[in-house]
Amino acid sequence: MALRNILTQEEPALYKTCRPVTEFNARLHQLLDDMAETLEKANGVGLAAPQVGVLRRAVLVIETNVAEDEDEYVIELINPEILEADGEQDGPEGCLSVPGEYGLVKRPMHVKVRAQDRYGKWFEVEGEGLTARCFCHEIDHLNGIVFTSKCERMLTEEELQSGEY
Ligand code: ZN
User: Fold this and answer.
1) Beta-carbon count within 10 A of 90 CB
2) How far is the centre of ligand 1, averaged over its atoms, from the C-alpha of 145 (Å)?
3) Quick one: pLDDT band at residue 3, thresholds 50, 70, 90?
């Protein structure tokens, strides 16, 4: 595995629509493994292929809603699409491509997503709260959308630290 360089918001690649993944081969597996290592190192909760300069529809989301005696785990989603979204949450959101900045973004509270795994097999997965936010945020990346364009407003350091916004 190898760390990949995370592109930051001035890079044009982050604003392009990504193409579907069609080959579920060793190259894709290498990309996903590298992305997992990069995500862990950066301490994030999600990462999309375009953030490492690959304009293909592949994302990683960390499922953080786990029982206390369970470990968080990485969900790999290839060619993901949101099947259902309901509820609403309004809260701070950040992005590894926009380091140190957070803004208020409205997202559904619950989503159901359909995607392929690294071998091309279709599956469905649901996310709640932060995980739902993360699914939406990462899938946005595949459509060239960075969260700052959806923000009601950016948060100041004081607001973030106090948790009052
Ligand atoms: Zn992001």
Assistant:
1) 11
2) 9
3) very high
